[in-house]
Amino acid sequence: MPLLEVKDLHTSFFTDAGEVKAVNGVSFNLDHGKVLGIVGESGSGKSVTAYSIMQILAGTGKIVSGSIKVDGQELVGAGEKVMKTIRGNKISIIFQDPMTSLNPTYTIGHQLMEAIVLHTDRNKKQAYDRAVEMLRLVNINEPEKRMDQYPFEFSGGMRQRIMIAMALACEPDILIADEPTTALDVTIQAQILELMQSLQKELGMAIIMITHDLGVVAQMCDEVIVMYAGSICEQGTADEIFYNPCHEYTKGLMRSIPTADTAGSKLQPITGTPIDLLNMPKGCPFAPRCDAAMKICLTQRCERMEINEEHAAACWMNVKKALDAGELALKEVATSE
Amino acid sequence: MSEIIKQPLLEVKDLKQHFSINMGAFKTKPLKAVDGVSFSINKGETLGLVGESGCGKTTVGRTILHLYKPTAGEIWYNGKKIETKQDIMEFRKKATMVFQDPYSSLNPRMTVADIIGEPLDVHKLYTSKQERQERILELMGHVGLNSEHAARYAHEFSGGQRQRIGIARALAVNPDFIVCDEPVSALDVSIQAQVINMFDELQDKLGLTYLFIAHDLLVVRHISDRIAVMYLGKMVELADAATIYDRPLHPYSKSLLSAVPVPDPKIARANQRIMLEGDIPSPLNAPSGCPFRTRCPYATEQCAAEMPEFKEVEKGHFVACHHVAEVN
Questions:
Q1: Are the beta carbons of A41 and B188 separated by less than 8 Å?
Q2: Which domains does chain B have, with CATH numbers?
């Protein structure tokens, strides 16, 4: 049984302008000790997927349908009481901005201990010891002294370490990291990523790494999900996604990153502008920006198709490729629809 | 990339920018944001300026344009030193800026046409209303916006389109030199590539010279001819873009470059990162001598005693480190 099982998740925001389908049919599994990367641009639904799992959606957001199971336990519709036993104990989350996610009016020690007392049956003294132990684990020097300090007395990198300490204090099985290093400088980012990698090996938890940085994904992740406009366009092992991308959007993303070889030449950007989630096109959401778009892409959405055991994508180009290679007869396609 | 003429368009000599920070009770302390930086940019060249937050790269860009009055140092443009108020006004017709945040750098109450037209108004660069309008439409054409967009407001555009408006505004006075301050860091990857290409094309078409400030090292390598690395208000290394990436000499540049996540799993897994201990010191309490010594694995007493000279160790490759020979 997978540790986390998300099936056909639909999450919408009900705004004055209409329903925004932020997550539109997302399914994936996460096993113990694996690192899963979710990549996509702003508005692709990667963060909303995470917030749906934690059920910490903003006011107008709602899980419309689908299933989220942790260790076989259904979370959708389970209620706040159950979720309180899940958050922190089973699944923890760290956010992008370590400044705004810590309370500026309480000491670090107070905030760490609060989480520990709330989620475990430790008393205050034990919680203090645990908090100090956690700070030491994330390489904060003189943790006893640091416990009495306020967030403003720490640098951005240290605040993110404290967030990690807080998230891991109750030994969750899953850590969701929502753009954990986007606000940090590269040398500090390298420190945090290395810390996460070593803690992951030490504690054996699973990580969901949400990011727009393909470099971070390449370094950290075993498996990758690429999202566009609320749906998964491609998912597979990191090697498959990077070396054998099978969705036109993923290919476009890979082409548009500057590398050593592009210096002095033109980049190949994805044309057009990001999609308006209030006016979703009928067919493939990426079709309006896709250079390879065919007639069918504009009218009909491609279902998820297996490329191999480690790789699936939702792109009609794969069907065309199979047809051209003679691996598929036209009649088969017609009947399967 | 366009032809680079080996003649400096802009020369910065020992530039210093110290801000005075109020410490309460009538006490102030100098914050040395930029502390003795010298470089030159040739005509048609792109100089990339990289470093982490607080290193002073943005302050360098703003001080060059005299958005801040320099504490010390000289700025020469086209062989002429910029001193008087009149010099500054003239200079600003030749040198403009593109800002990082396309959301806060455009006035929400102005239409696109007025945003782009404002520099024309300030410098009185037209004789008739019609000439102004034609110039605005021409500028919008340069950045891939069409005439229908002219009467709209900034909030009606996406991030990438807003940055195009900001670029059109920077081009309005027909400049030779543009300071690009993190112009693509607020944009998504797919949009970022569009804007980077536009900078390239505009440089070819209009013969522009850029100072390209960014923290994304992959972007900087792509666009720059030469790259300068800053740390805590000082320049620590300057060389050709390819040289900096293939053979960085300063220990800070080495670790900075090794920390960049490479979008290729096999390389990323095998990559040996040079980890730095700790955080960047506050510029209010900058270390004595070499600013990097507190995090540098090679630091000695000499580094604490004196600031290493920024010297040319091989042709066109400048480094400020006492121990270049041992480090490499």
A1: yes
A2: 5-94+175-327 (3.40.50.300)
